[in-house]
Specification:
mainly beta; 12 strands
Length: about 160
């Protein structure tokens, strides 16, 4: 087999017809504050970050990593959402299962966004409880930790 009439060892690049994505920039917010909520309505976590895409065709890969805990022996469902500006672009729900004293969870997820702009674009994370039980962010077993929001611009 001779791809494009070349031996395998002679091929040094992919043909131009095969699209490849490139990471053009990365913006990260490491959030270290310990905050909590009992609200059953969405509110800000304090985790926010802006990115300015270099082309309208760029995609933004949004990666969320949250360290959550609750100190009750009841299960709690927590919902988080990613906003671009004031528009909700992704929802995530997680149940924090009780282990009789302290419930902990690492919640991580990604979303590939197409903002179609070259203007500065702000992303943020909001959260809410389902049952109204206190949920803590960045207070893992009483010690400090961090959560993060990472934005990666992927060029066409």
């Amino acid at each position: 087999i001779k791809p494009n009439n070349n031996t395998i060892s002679a091929i040094t690049a992919l043909p131009a017809a095969i699209p490849t994505g490139k990471v053009l920039q990365i913006q990260t917010h490491h959030f270290t504050s310990a905050v909590n909520t009992t609200s059953t309505s969405f509110g800000d976590t304090g985790i926010t970050k802006a990115i300015t895409p270099s082309a309208t065709s760029s995609k933004i890969l949004v990666t969320v990593a949250l360290k959550l805990a609750t100190s009750t022996d009841s299960n709690e469902r927590i919902m988080t959402q990613i906003l671009r500006g004031s528009s909700v672009i992704a929802l995530n729900e997680r149940t924090l299962l009780s282990n009789d004293s302290e419930t902990q969870a690492m919640v991580g997820y990604q979303f590939l966004d197409s903002p179609n702009t070259t203007s500065a674009t702000t992303y943020k994370i909001q959260w809410r409880c389902i049952n109204g039980i206190t949920v803590r962010l960045n207070d893992y077993e009483g010690t400090g930790s961090f959560s993060s929001l990472t934005l990666m611009e992927i060029g066409a």
